[in-house]
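WARN no homologs supplied; continuing
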Amino acid sequence: QLQLVESGGGLVQSGGSLRLYCAASGFTLTHYAIGWFRQIPGKEREGVSSISAFGGSTDYAYSVGGRFTIARDNAKNTVYLQMNSLKPEDTAVYYCAAAYGSSWYHQPPSITDESIYGYWGQGTQVTVSS
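OK structure emitted
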């Protein structure tokens, strides 16, 4: 069974940092591009960042640019989202999702089109206190 599992969420003070992890189970991430999304209860899910399958290209939402960094270690079958200078408005459930296809080998998939992503994790809660 193909699964994505997020971890690393938690409670942090404003200005602090967290690193989220997206691990694959049942398949290797090597040929999958990965996106990170987040959702606040009562609001639509929004794209945060994405990375190409081979890791050479990334994309970020304007709201997190310069604060968040996405990276991947295909040898460990894991994608990371390093979040620095966290703000209370970053509080949300964070999801990772995988997009398969040669289109995403060298370019990051759009973070505004969720239909690109075929596999989703269950999410991890990030809470930033003021």
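The mean pLDDT is 95.
OK
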